[in-house]
């Protein structure tokens, strides 16, 4: 299958939507991601001289900035370019929905010790990020990392293992944020040994062979990076209990309306507080290619180049090429679509709606952009909450027979045709085609429309209908529940859920919709205050790198949020599952998977975990594997199409955004 030819055909404005489905469907099927094998990297030759952006050269000439050679480490990271050496300058125009839409900007600007290397649509490796190298012992219970010599924070302060020790003592052991599960095995915290100013070793009580994948997916440290460290010289000022600058702490607390110094680092249990998250704090020193210039409550939200970024292209040009990234604030999808048609968006896939394909395609000439196609590694899904505070609903949602009835009552083909014009695939919430974990039987499990069987299953459960046609629960009350979601009325996602509600009403269930803003959705889910949640079942490509959807630890997909909090020892509300609950078997298999050094045995264990969901899915998929639309301005360089669009791979972040450029 020639993926490039298919993508070229999709660029033809005369293509029908049905052809679009056929071609993109074959593109998805043609891409198979092999299992990623963690390992170290080969050294790359360092350019003999370096160049810099004109805006930085002016600062050097004015004496306000050191030379580029002084700002870079002795062995900078060589960032591969997609097509060509780029040009300096310009502003990358994007749009976002405000502070709750944090992952849009963040995924473009993350820095990990180990990161994904995705040279083409068929290959995924891992490579060194801000470390020059890493090694591991035979059973992967110890990893040794070496920082790049001369690496600096964005304020010019040198990076050292003192920053690693600070993060470990204050932020990891100090419980300022939720400890990543992959740093804490068998209830034992990760160990740290500082070897010298640039070298440190982390150790675990058991093999941790998947650590490189986990770090590539999620920094495992501060949100958006870096892994294993934090700028001690800056953040130490905000440490309470007499250790920091109390005047600074008091001012920050007052400005943000917070009560304790810990909240400056991690409100709601994660390192996303107003001081420790670069997205919210323009003053925070970073390693990222860009740093915040203002706060995300302002419009537009601006990110500007980091003059000390440690990456260069193959010719020694310090990256990023682009000076600034501007995020215009919007809340109405129609406004965003109008900006696209007016040519005000340079490169973006987030919030670009597949259902609006015709509008985007017809506006290409006016907006001076091209509509490029990626492949979604996700499925639209609903999540019956087995931890529901109503014990009757909780018991029903935890009954496979009831979930099957909910699933087969949904007419996925009709939803696909009426809302998505046949562009999606009717499917169960499961690994997508192309994933090492793809299973066609799982994909179709409980996915065939069969309302007669759905009714029969509910009858067998004793859920008989009253005079009004609504089924009655075991306690004599109507069988009523709501679907909690964040989708605006009139969007395809909201229309889809409206149809799901009608299908469920048709089998005698009293179903309503509860529409809230994203941050409230997250809060309610974290507290278990949800009947049925609605969210994408994503992270379905390299599933082993981020299995949260399958182990119940991903809050936005709340099939077992309180059990998930118990497993992760999260600061949110918890519940301990019964000893014989299947989720304990899921957890046991995952605990075995992540410490098994033999890849074949590891894959077999993980398959057993997936098969539990295959037997009786907890999340109910609707349609998925959509063609993901990216708006790509004709002035934007070094981007590509046909890649798998997945949170695990950081979506478009996998293409190395510092090498994007704006053509003059």
Describe the structure.
The chain starts with a helix and ends with a strand. Strand 3 (114-120) and strand 4 form a beta hairpin. Helix content is 30%, strand content 17%. It has two domains: 54-322 and 631-662, Dipeptide-binding Protein, Domain 1 (Dipeptide-binding Protein, domain 1, Alpha-Beta Complex), CATH 3.90.76; 379-624, Dipeptide-binding Protein, Domain 3 (Dipeptide-binding Protein, domain 3, Roll), CATH 3.10.105. It is of the alpha+beta class.
Short description:
This protein is of the alpha+beta class. The chain has 24 helices and 26 strands.
Give start-end ranges of low-pLDDT stretches.
Answer: 1-35, 37-42
Characterize the overall form: globular
Largest β sheet strand count, sense and barrel closure: 6 strands, mixed
Classify the helix fraction into a percent range: 25-40%
Return the average pLDDT rounded to an integer: 91
Strand-pairing-aware structural class: alpha+beta
Specify the CATH architecture of the largest domain.
Alpha-Beta Complex
> How many angstroms separate the termini?
35 Å
Helix count?
24
Q: Kindly provide the radius of gyration, computed on alpha-carbon positions and rounded to a whole number of angstroms.
A: 25 Å
Biggest β-sheet: strands ordered side by side in the sheet: 18-22-17-21-19-20
Q: Strand percentage, roughly?
A: 15-25%
Classify the oligomer: single chain
CATH homologous superfamily (4th level) name of the largest domain: Dipeptide-binding Protein, Domain 1
User: What is the number of beta strands?
Assistant: 26
| Domain module tally | 2
Under the CATH scheme, which class of the largest domain? Alpha Beta
């Amino acid at each position: 299958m020639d993926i490039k030819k298919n993508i070229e055909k999709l660029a033809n404005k005369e293509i029908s939507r049905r052809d679009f489905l056929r071609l993109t469907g074959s593109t998805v099927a043609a891409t198979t991601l092999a299992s990623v094998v963690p390992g170290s990297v080969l050294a790359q030759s360092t350019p003999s001289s370096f160049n810099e952006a004109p805006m930085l050269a002016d600062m050097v000439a004015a004496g306000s900035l050191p030379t580029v050679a002084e700002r870079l480490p002795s062995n900078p990271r060589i960032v591969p370019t997609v097509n060509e050496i780029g040009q300096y300058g310009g502003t990358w125009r994007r749009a976002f929905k405000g502070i709750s839409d944090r992952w849009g900007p963040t995924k473009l600007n993350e820095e990990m010790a180990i990161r994904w290397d995705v040279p083409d649509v068929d290959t995924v490796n891992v490579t060194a990020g801000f470390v020059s190298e890493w090694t591991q012992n035979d059973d992967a219970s110890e990893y040794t990392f070496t920082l790049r010599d001369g690496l600096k924070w964005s304020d010019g302060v040198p990076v050292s293992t003192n920053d690693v020790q600070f993060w470990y003592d204050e932020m990891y052991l100090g419980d300022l944020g939720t400890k990543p599960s992959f740093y804490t095995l068998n209830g034992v915290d990760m160990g740290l040994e500082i070897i010298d100013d640039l070298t440190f070793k982390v150790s675990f009580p058991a093999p941790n062979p998947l650590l490189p994948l986990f770090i590539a997916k999620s920094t495992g440290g501060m949100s958006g990076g870096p892994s294993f460290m934090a700028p001690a010289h800056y953040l130490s000022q905000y440490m309470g209990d007499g250790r920091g600058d109390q005047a600074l702490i008091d001012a920050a607390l007052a400005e943000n309306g917070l009560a304790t110094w810990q909240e400056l680092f991690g409100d709601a249990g994660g390192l996303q507080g107003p001081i420790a998250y670069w997205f919210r704090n323009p003053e925070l020193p970073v390693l990222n290619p860009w740093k915040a210039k203002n706060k995300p409550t302002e419009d537009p939200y601006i990110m500007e180049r980091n003059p000390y970024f440690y990456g260069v292209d193959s010719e020694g040009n310090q990256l990023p090429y682009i000076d600034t990234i501007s995020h215009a604030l919007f809340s109405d999808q129609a406004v965003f679509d109008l900006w696209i048609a007016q040519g005000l968006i340079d490169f973006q896939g987030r919030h670009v709606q597949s259902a609006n394909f015709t509008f985007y395609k017809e506006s290409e000439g006016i907006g001076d952009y091209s509509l490029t196609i990626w492949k979604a590694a996700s499925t639209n899904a609903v999540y019956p909450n087995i931890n529901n505070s109503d014990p009757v609903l909780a018991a029903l949602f935890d009954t496979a027979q009831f979930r099957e009835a909910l699933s087969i009552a949904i007419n996925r083909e009709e939803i696909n045709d009426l809302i998505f014009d046949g562009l999606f695939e009717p499917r169960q919430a499961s690994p997508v085609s192309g994933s090492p974990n793809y299973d066609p039987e799982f994909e179709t499990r409980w996915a065939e429309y069969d309302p007669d069987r759905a009714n029969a299953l509910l009858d067998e459960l004793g859920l008989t209908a009253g005079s009004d046609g609504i089924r009655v629960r075991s306690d004599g009350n109507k069988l009523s529940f709501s679907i909690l979601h964040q989708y605006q009325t009139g969007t395809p996602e909201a229309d889809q859920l409206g149809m799901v509600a009608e299908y469920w009403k048709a089998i005698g269930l009293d179903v309503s919709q509860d529409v809230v803003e994203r941050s409230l959705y997250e809060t309610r889910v974290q507290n278990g205050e949800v009947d049925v949640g609605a969210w994408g079942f994503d992270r379905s490509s390299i599933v082993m790198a981020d299995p949260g959807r399958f182990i119940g630890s991903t809050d936005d997909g709340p099939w077992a949020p309180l059990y998930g909090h118990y497993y992760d020892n999260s600061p949110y509300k918890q519940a301990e599952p019964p000893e014989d609950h299947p989720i304990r078997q899921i957890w046991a298999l995952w605990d075995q998977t992540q410490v098994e050094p033999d890849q074949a045995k590891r894959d077999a264990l993980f398959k057993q975990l997936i098969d539990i969901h295959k037997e009786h899915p907890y999340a109910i998929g609707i349609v998925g594997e959509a063609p993901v639309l990216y708006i790509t301005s004709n002035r934007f360089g070094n981007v590509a199409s046909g890649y798998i669009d997945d949170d695990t791979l950081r979506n478009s972040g996998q293409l190395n955004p510092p090498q994007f450029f704006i053509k003059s």
